[in-house]
Amino acid sequence: MTGWSAPAAAGSERGPTWTGCGPRLECAEVTVPLDWSRPHGQTITLPVVRHLASRPQQRIGSLFVNPGGPGDSGVEMATTRGDALDAATDGRFDIVGWDVRGAGGTARVDCFGDPAQRQAFWAGKPIPTTAAEQRAYLATTAEFARRCGAANGELLTHISTADTARDLDHLRHLVGDEQLSYLGESYGTFIGQVYANMYPRRVRAMALDGIADPVAVTGGTETALAAALVSTDKAFEQFLATCQAAGPDRCALAGHGPVAPRVDAMLRRLRHTPLPAPHATPPGTLSYQEALAPLKFAILGHPILWPEAAAALETAIAGDGSAVKDAASFPASEQFHRLVEPGQAITCADSPAKVRAARWPQVIHRFTQISRIGGAPLGWGMGAACASWPAGDTHRYTGPWNAATSNPILLVNTKYDPNSPLVGARRVERLLGNAVLLVHDGYGHLTNSDPSSCVTAATRHYLVELTTPAPGSVCLSDRAPYDPAFGGPTP
């Protein structure tokens, strides 16, 4: 659908009732229609928090923020990062975060209702390797999708990003801003692009970090995940190359000969023979897919974790997979599945699968051709359920994507981002009618994972002064991976 636009004032006209909830923090719950085509029908509530501007006399307005996911908490982002975001924007904005529908308030997707039930459901079901394991896992994801449909009902048909964009426009109206100022990260960049194309005249400034390609995102689960995998193996190569450059004093994998061949040889062995993990909690063996999962879901996106990950891989090369198996425990945990349930539902709403569940192993094979590191973990862990998903969102937005806002949109993308390929950001720069891409010559998912004072300054100038970097601009990181002071204050 190319989308209709609900009026900004649809639903309640009353502004949020703010109450103090921490230093310079105010919290509220905002009521919105479940179905924006029926503004006076069933409603849901969304939690909202704002971090008050430190220079209120020079306040520009509100800066709405979203950390991605999909389904990560904007409330948490504004609460925990409010001071830093305030400083990064010269204290000129109230920093406003909200939990998108599907992720918070009365509109959170919850497929079990009880953590013990979720834990029991997923226990003993690691990412599959053999054909028999794949058939069993497909049955598990089909049952999971059925449970999600039974537990969440009509909500699943109203949680696409188009619904969230309508919520965001309503929030903008309620806080009294004539135009939107917005900072979106990862999936939050897709929210921004949907909003900008639905409401181009209502955009003041939009800084997007870790760009999602909207054509791929809306092209079906298979297309969306394939696009996100394009840069994963390149990021893994950089994880190994920067380790070798750092040397043995800073990276445990270095100093024993070329790093990449040693790690590749260990992974080849592991593909056929599990490694003992006698010191893991609990003790056991490490499988090939278990070794890949933390790389895709955590390590590659966060260079601050690279020294610890390198040490764990070095012990695996020596024959003990305990440290890697412990790192793999989170992607298999109840907490992980609880956190990703909203994201899976939003993904299936925005990007419904185009193949039946029985054909999903063929999709995984294609994914592993794109990325040996991330293909199976992402394809099974985030995509398989969409092939059995019980609901669709007829109001999802699928384009066009070429709207021209009055002020340019600032796109920022890290060169070696394992989740948001730079090629997608370049495509979005060409698609949008008025956008400028700033390339961060660094590593990890999102620029705050590999700090760059250059990116911070460029984003501040843009959001506050509406000035963009020159086309083709590149920012360097403040420090290299494996630097002991990585992530610390600017040198």
From TrEMBL:
GO terms for molecular function: hydrolase activity. Residues 1-22 are annotated as: Disordered. Residues 384-475 form the Peptidase S33 tripeptidyl aminopeptidase-like C-terminal domain. Belongs to the peptidase S33 family. Residues 63-234 form the AB hydrolase-1 domain. Keywords: Hydrolase. It comes from the Bacteria. It holds the Pfam family Abhydrolase_1. This is Hydrolase. The keyword ATP-binding does not apply.
